Amino acid sequence: MSKVIFSNISKRFPGVSGAAAGLAVDRLNLVIEEGTLVTLLGPSGCGKTTTLRMLAGFETPSEGAITIGGRDVTNVPVNARNVGMVFQSYALFPHMTVRENVEYGVRLLNLPRHEMKDRVSSVLATMALETYADRSPSRLSGGQQQRVALARAVVTQPKVLLFDEPLSNLDAQLRERMRDELRAIQLRLGITSLYVTHDQSEAMAISDRVVVMRNGVIEQDDTPLNVYSRPGTGFVAEFMGKANILQGRVEKLDESTVSIRIASTVAFTLPRGNRAFRPGEQVRCVVRPEHIRVDANGAMQAKVRRVVFQGAYVEYLTDLEGQECVFLDSDYYRTGVAEVGQMLRLSVDSQPVWILPHNEAADMGKAA
Amino acid sequence: MTLVSQATPSGRTGASPAFLRKIVVDPWLFGIFAVVTLSVLVFAALPIFTVLKQAVVTDRGFDLAALAEVLTKSFVWESLFNTLLLGATSAVIATLTGFVLAFSATRTTMPGKTFVHGVALLPIISPPFVMALAVVILFGRSGLITRELLGIRNANVYGFHSLVLIQSLAFTPIAYLNIRGMLQSIDSALEDASASLGASRWITFSRVTLPLVTPAILSSALLVFVKSVEDFGNPMLIGGNFNTLAVEAYSQMVGYFDLHSGALLASLMLVPSITAFLVHRYWVAKRSYVTVTGKPTAQTIRISGAAVVLPLSMLCYAIVLAILLFYLTVIYVSFTRLPGIDNTLTTDHYATVFTAGFQTLTNSLLLAGIATPVTAVAGMLIAYLLVRKAFPGSFLLRWGTLLSFAAPGTILGIGYVSTFNAPPLLLTGTAFIVVAAMVVKNLQVGIEAGSNQLRQIDKSIEEASMTLGASNTRTFFQITLPLLKPALFTSLSYAFTRSLTTLSAVIFLVSANWTLITVTILSQVETLKIGVAAAYCSILVFVVLAILALMQLLLSSTSPKR
């Protein structure tokens, strides 16, 4: 009913020079299935906010069309789109109380008075805001303001809910709690949602699908699990948390496995799936730091360059025969902390190692 | 709303130009924009161009010979020179006194700051020529000081020296407020840093503080210069043979019915005004290191050494007491039978004002009362249209309002008389034309205040309103305007004060039906009814103070609950 489709959307900002001459979004195709939450993730300037603002109606695409629930909204003004939006700054009306903020949109629907009151009080109850209803928003805590913003956005029962980095103003602990709360409410209401963030862990925790963007183009559109563990490109691998991208060579191939040589040693053997490899071929392997460990019998040898103590673990930056390799050691209390310059033997948990597709550009289409 | 989406059906959007969409998305707001822009063009730009045209076009069309003839007349060059000389001198002195006051008030432990601050602002809320009146009373031929105290029989109060004194004092508040605002907004950490690096007070002042406030000093000097060029009342009352462009243009127009010369002189006034204004806007303002937010930063180090504080305090008190003396003189004279000759106390002058002169008082209040809310709301609306909505043609609105602000009242007044004296715009003699002049002349202050405030309001607050289904127009009236309240009140106060005390433009526009208090005061002084003039002035100052206090009360009582 309220499936969102971006077809071939481009956005050019006139007078902007630099990356691709003001092309903020470049022929973007994206589907948000009914009731799901899709996150746009990427560094600043990647076009994620522009994409969100085009769905809201604040920006008009230079090319392409956007539909919500089958209705073409490309030229529909913001106030006629029936979208709810939660802003980074919350954008609560400072001259109104919490209740007046929530009522604002409902009043514009011309509902019968009792229905309006019912809706407002039920939303206030859902968000646990009843006790604050007659306060000014400036007297609420960050988390409470966040809830008011969400209450105000959902009370009109919008077709689509938009989130523009809604948690970036909260401190780390509250951010996690609000994140889970937002997701719970979104699931309960079943509203089709588009969520913009530059925080990859937030994106993974909250989304049905994660869309990684770079330079106005989608790099990968996949489930959170796949985006993390089977990145389509080196950019995605490195953007989704810490990753070592190690240069290797296909050493041995058989029916079901492939063995990879990193520098002087055969570092790991992993299932090849249904992918084609040639013996001797150069490959790039994504190895997450948490999958490398100190192991007296390990195949790889690395020299410690930097040691950062983090409490739960020690983070090592090492030199693996000319390649940088980062790994985490959460066993340090047993084995002790190594020192800079020390040689360590390392082994890799080969199961989660991911070999990047040969040609990123060619593979991108497949991933999307 | 749905109508709009049907009007511009879906599909490839590259074809329809972006600016057309802006209009289509909110036809109401565009309608408002069109009406406002048209009004500004008709009531601000058109009159000025009419005057410029009159200066170069006679019955024989574009007439260079007539122009050359006027330009050979000595009064043209003399009054131009006088205007520039007076403007430059007043600008320098007023800026200096303003700086002394501002520095003492913000950086020293001078006693009685609130008193100094209050008195220093007095000239801003009174008619510009109250000072002139006071000077005549104190230093004139039968002056309280010159004759009564010093026994001088033939004191000549009229001329350049008196004008400089009056304008310097009258325009000091402009410089004072401007420089004070910047001194307050300098992060005190900068001065602390200088001190911590071993700099003495003097080095800190000359190498850190002074360079940081230089833009405010320059901008004050330019603003005072513009004000001085524009001033009509003071040179008219006390200039004597020292004629400025404003006075000369008036006497050519009204005295000799020489429209051509009058228009040319008024056009000449545009040159220094617009130049100073443009220099201010595009050069000085860009060199500012500090953004004046009106929010004072943390307490700065106060200079408490007697060697600095004492002379500064004495200077400040001298300035303030001079201002106070002038105002008290006017009040005293308003209660005196025949100042200088018969000093018995009386309330006769007030009786005159409230009987024979009651009409002009209520006229002034009524017209200013109409002009004030119009000016303020229009100012906020224009600020919104310019800052938030870039409609095609915005530049017309921007330049139209800037022009009306930079142009002296004299050219506006002459322009109104010449433009609106024939159908379809036959407005001369009506109250409407007076109100229009008041609105147009004072619009820019509201626009500036509104724009500054708008830039501090998070744009997503308005966007939130739109996503909730409100149109642009509704968003403006329900969300933006309430948030602009402080700027709205600034604009209301300014518009009211100026509308009530303005003279230079409206003197050309008043009629038998609609005469104004300022014009009446001028004619009372000219017919030497000093007592009645003083009574009018006192009432005017009192009314302005009362209304401003009332507005302040209203603002604080309606401020959001914390």
How is this structure best described in words?
The complex is a heterodimer of chains A (368) and B (562). Helix content of chain A is 26%, strand content 33%. Chain A has helices at 48-56, 98-107, 113-126, 142-154, 172-189, 200-206, 224-229, 234-239, 332-335, 360-367; strands at residues 4-12, 23-32, 37-41, 63-68, 71-72, 83-86, 160-164, 192-197, 209-214, 217-222, 244-253, 257-262, 265-271, 282-287, 292-294, 300-309, 314-320, 323-329, 343-348, 354-355. A six-stranded mixed β-sheet of chain A has the order 6-7-8-3-9-10, with helices on both faces. A five-stranded antiparallel β-sheet of chain A has the order 13-12-11-14-20. A five-stranded antiparallel β-sheet of chain A has the order 15-19-16-17-18, with no helix packed on it. In chain A, helix 2 (98-107) runs parallel beside helix 4. In chain B, 73% of the residues lie in helices and 2% in strands. Chain B folds into two domains: 19-61 and 363-514, MetI-like (MetI-like fold), CATH 1.10.3720; 73-346, MetI-like fold (Orthogonal Bundle). The radius of gyration of chain B is 25 Å and the shape is globular. In chain B, strand 3 (336-338) and strand 4 (342-345) form a beta hairpin. Chain A binds chain B through residues 56-58, 60-65, 72-85, 87-89, 91-95, 104-105, 108-109, 136, 138-139, 152-153, 156, 158, 162, 164, and chain B through 1-2, 4-5, 8-14, 16, 18, 21, 25-26, 458, 460-461, 463-471, 474, 478-479, 482-483, 560-562.
